[in-house]
Amino acid sequence: MFEVGMTLQLEQDGVEGTYKCRVCELEDDKVLIDYPIHQKTGKSIFLINGTRLKVSFVLKDQTVLECKTDVVGRRMAEIPLIELERPSEEEFQRIQRRHFVRIEAPVDISLKTEGNQIVTVTEDISAGGCALILKEDAGIREEEEVELFLVLPLQKANQYLELKGRVSRIWEKDRRKLASIEFIAPDEAHKRHIMRFCFEKQLDHRKKGFA
């Protein structure tokens, strides 16, 4: 299930937020990762032996797998590595991806990659992802992981969301360049805000006679 170079998302009981790391080496009984980075603060976390972690990752066919593992050691290589116990295939769980209502709506959004930052608007959005309008020289690639910052104009107040995403497709529509972004493991609060926004937009369309 694991592959060298794969990005993992880690969660630790009692610690707020999620961490991202990369699989650097694989052994029969161990997965060696680089030091995990908090997805919001950008700070690394120190994990002691015995720390219990929930690990999730997305396969190439977009299947999400989840498992539990423990920190079993550290190792010095070209970079410091953390050793995780390698779960058996029977320990992996497939996470069902829900189909969310998608609406066409312009939402202000900032997209950040390792060497680029783009400010644009969405073409459409759902709690599972969105499509962005791009300039021709946007410089992003399919399968690239990105950081997203959205401003959701809800009726009560604006909501500011920070999300992780993956560029699943770059395409054209009506002579415009678009990128489809799949959100990576958004938390439940973020999904609720986006679903609320979609619901409010649907109601607004019905009131105007568009639905």
TrEMBL record:
It holds the Pfam family PilZ. Residues 96-200 form the PilZ domain. Residues 4-87 form the Type III secretion system flagellar brake protein YcgR PilZN domain. One of its GO terms (molecular function) is cyclic-di-GMP binding. This is Flagellar brake protein YcgR. It comes from Rossellomorea marisflavi. The lineage of its organism: Bacteria, Bacillati, Bacillota, Bacilli, Bacillales.
